[in-house]
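Input record, target 12 of the design panel.
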């Protein structure tokens, strides 16, 4: 009978030695890549130059099946950098579109995001058509039970209904990037809005990565959301002269009447580093033309 505890102990040690070596904590999620840095490689098939530049993707345009795991904005960058990256939503052609800012670390990231909205786009973003409708003076009051309450200045509502809705959308889409915020209440107006209330202010294709002006290296990570035909999102990379140096496509998690996430990698070949453009678009099922094109100006690293 005295041998029973010893046998049980030996059995426990044996089982522990057979445990899955992949188990354990994954640690904190990294912050979003800062503008001016190369995008992280994607472990997914990529397309090489020489594939069709329009119409239905040809046999060389490789489909990416990488899981959609975009980094969370508004979280600190890796230890030691002392910076935080936040996502900002600006207005362009009647819709809201995202970009990013990396700033010194602060505990008040929501206040930082509101200040950056009021400061407006960079020169590169303005050249790409981005603008802000949010005036200075929008103050964060509190965040409680998933609702961020903001106090806008009196001039906030002094505009037409369409502009006011876009203005509110900028604030809502920016603040709801944070995990503690699901909706935004605008003090003094009785208006409470979530992202679902403003989904119609998104373009058919939204690109969250890369950001305007970002320095990228191949394979270029391209991510965002889309509501396109058969969920197929096409991508091409152009050099500074407009020459196509890389093409590919990926598939959103939903399409043809619903919005889904997409994420893929596209390789390119370029002898000399310089400006370029990442184009994300839908191929028209009617005539094969490129539609809903989103052009993101970037800085392309030279490839070997």
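The sequence produced for target 12 reads:
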């Amino acid at each position: 009978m005295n041998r029973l505890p010893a046998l049980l102990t030996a059995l426990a040690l044996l089982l522990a030695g057979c445990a899955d070596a992949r188990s354990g904590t994954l640690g904190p999620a990294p912050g979003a890549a800062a503008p001016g840095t190369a995008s992280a490689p994607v472990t997914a098939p990529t397309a090489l130059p020489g594939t069709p530049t329009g119409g239905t993707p040809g046999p060389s345009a490789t489909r990416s099946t990488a899981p959609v795991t975009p980094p969370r904005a508004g979280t600190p960058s890796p230890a030691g950098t002392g910076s935080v990256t936040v996502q900002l939503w600006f207005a362009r052609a009647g819709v809201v579109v995202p970009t990013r800012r990396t700033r010194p670390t602060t505990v008040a990231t929501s206040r930082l995001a509101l200040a950056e909205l009021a400061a407006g786009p960079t020169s590169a973003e303005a050249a790409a058509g981005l603008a802000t409708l949010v005036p200075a003076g929008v103050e964060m009051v509190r965040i409680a039970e998933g609702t961020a309450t903001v106090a806008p200045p009196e001039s906030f509502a002094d505009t037409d209904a369409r502009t006011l809705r876009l203005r509110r959308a900028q604030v809502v889409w920016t603040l709801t990037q944070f995990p503690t915020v699901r909706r935004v209440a605008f003090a003094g107006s009785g208006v409470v809005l979530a992202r679902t209330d403003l989904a119609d202010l998104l373009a058919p294709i939204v690109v969250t990565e890369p950001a305007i002006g970002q320095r990228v290296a191949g394979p270029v990570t391209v991510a965002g959301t889309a509501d396109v035909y058969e969920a197929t999102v096409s991508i091409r990379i152009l050099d500074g002269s407009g020459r196509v140096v890389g093409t590919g496509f990926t598939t959103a998690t939903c399409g043809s009447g619903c919005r889904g996430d997409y994420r893929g990698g596209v390789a390119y070949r370029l002898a000399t580093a310089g400006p370029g453009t990442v184009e994300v678009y839908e191929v028209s099922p009617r005539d094969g033309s490129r539609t809903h094109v989103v052009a993101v100006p970037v800085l392309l690293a030279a490839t070997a």
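Residues 136 and 201 are 22 Å apart (CA to CA).
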